[in-house]
Amino acid sequence: MKKAIVILLLAVVGWVLVDTFFQVNFGESRLGELEQQKTVGAFYLNNTVEKLTVANVVTAIVVNYRGFDTLGEVTVLFLAAAGLGSILYRRKEEGEHDVMVLNNSSQLLQTGARLIFPAILVLGVYVFIHGHLTPGGGFQGGAIIATGFLLMFMAYKDYHVSHNVLTWVESLAGVLFVTVGIWGLISGGSFLENVLGTGVLNDLVSGGVVPIIYIAVGFKVAAELTGVLETLLNFKTKK
Amino acid sequence: MVFNAIFLSLLAIILIAAAIYAVVQKDLLYAVIATGVISLVLSIYFFIMQAPDVALTEAAIGIALTTIIFVITIRNTSRREDEIPVTKEPDRGDKN
Amino acid sequence: MDPVLYNKIVSIGIYGSAIGLILIGLYAVLVKKHLTKIVIGLSIIDSGIHLLFIAVGFIKGGTAPIFSPKGIELVNQGTAMVDPVPQALVLTAIVIGFGVTAVALSLVIRLYRHQHTAKIDHIKSLKW
């Protein structure tokens, strides 16, 4: 009986979705003429190079045109990490200590992790510094750095990242984001307004405050995700 | 043209097969790896549809991080879906 | 191959697989009894919705919305650029979906510590 109701519900939802989305022709351009700017996408594509000098249009939308939503997203990630830490809190009982994995891994993983880990860090930092020129940005670079730390956690039994360092990096990066926004409010007129001079297109130093904000977001996301992984991996064993 | 059509259809079949496997399989570790395969095929789709930022984000977050937090959950709970729970008094007034 | 037939095959493939993912995830959330399987279903629904968004924004023969030197050359030759707005929305959505999954799984771990089971049929006491 319950299965019949579920199948009926799925059929209704499926019919509504199919009916709506198969009327939207796949691959048809709905942007209109780029000069007339009748849609939001056409406006962003037209004005990014002239007003902002940022090469990656998606970065310009995420950081500048819809920058306030990115502030909200960074807040949601922070709340998720804090909530996770407080839900899984467990007081240390007598004779327990923290380990992440019970044994050291094989020699292959230990040597490989130690060799690859600096390369992963450099890749992550590259991705979020060049966010306004190539595909990439703060969130991608932060996730790559967190994956590098995960590799080290898996390989070594006693590898710990100092909790204080993570907390300070995350807090300072968040404060930097809001400070840049308030600076824009004071000297430009609106929150997160672009107040630095824009440089030449496709230069590393170009685009005003856009690289600064993405570097702050990159550090913050990397520190947060590493903290989440360390909280989840902690496994208290009795000696 | 024919090669493109065959390749995209093959990707769609792998996607649906991995999704059905993830839902039906009783051993939870295999289901989690099928979820990783879904993220991988999705990342290829995003790249084909000219969205490189989204492909990078889905690859970094969906494949590596989502799989590892599921595996940590399986380590701390049960491995199989059809476990027989230990009948025990639920802890009340625990030290926590 | 006939372009109309090719377009139809590709559109059925991509829209069909996105809607299929949403329906399969919804089935897992409604029918399954183990909490980890329910969270896997939530994650699959998220993936389906993201694919649907990006598929709507695609333009045939378009290129990525980045004004690199090669991109400027392609635009001057007349190639259109793909709509950038759905990509920015999906970027945010992927990160927030991961955050929601992480908090849901931490709740599952905490529940298992107290009740020693993760099947919702066997959790009977209202107060932990």
Description:
The complex is a heterotrimer of chains A (239), B (96) and C (128). With 239 residues, chain A is mainly alpha-helical. Chain A has one domain. Chain A has helices spanning 2-21, 40-52, 57-65, 67-87, 107-129, 138-155, 163-188, 210-233; strands at residues 96-99, 235-238. In chain A, strands 1-2 form a two-stranded antiparallel ribbon. In chain A, helix 4 packs parallel to helix 8 and helix 5 packs antiparallel against helix 6 (138-155). Chain A is globular. Chain A starts with a helix and ends with a strand. The model of chain A has no long low-confidence stretch (mean pLDDT 86). Chain B is mainly alpha-helical and 96 residues long. Chain B has helices at residues 2-24, 28-48, 52-76. Chain B starts with a helix and ends in a 20-residue tail after the last helix. The model of chain B has no long low-confidence stretch (mean pLDDT 88). Chain C has 128 residues and is mainly alpha-helical. Chain C has one domain (3-126): Orthogonal Bundle (Helix Hairpins). Chain C is elongated, with a radius of gyration of 21 Å. Chain C starts with a helix and ends in a 13-residue tail after the last helix. The model of chain C has no long low-confidence stretch (mean pLDDT 90). Chains A and C meet through helix 1, helix 2, helix 3, helix 4 and helix 8 of A and helix 1, helix 2 and helix 4 of C.
The N- to C-terminal Cα distance of chain A equals: 52 Å
Structural category of chain B is: mainly alpha
Shape of chain A: globular
Q: What integer value in Å does the Rg of chain B equal?
A: 18 Å
**In what range is the share of β-strand residues of chain A?**
under 5%
Share in helix of chain A: 55-70%
Uncertain runs of chain A: none
- Major sheet attributes of chain A: 2 strands, antiparallel
What about the largest sheet of chain B? none
Mean pLDDT figure of chain A: 86
The fraction of residues in strands of chain B falls at under 5%
Pattern of helices and strands of chain B: HHH
**What is the count of structural domains of chain A?**
1
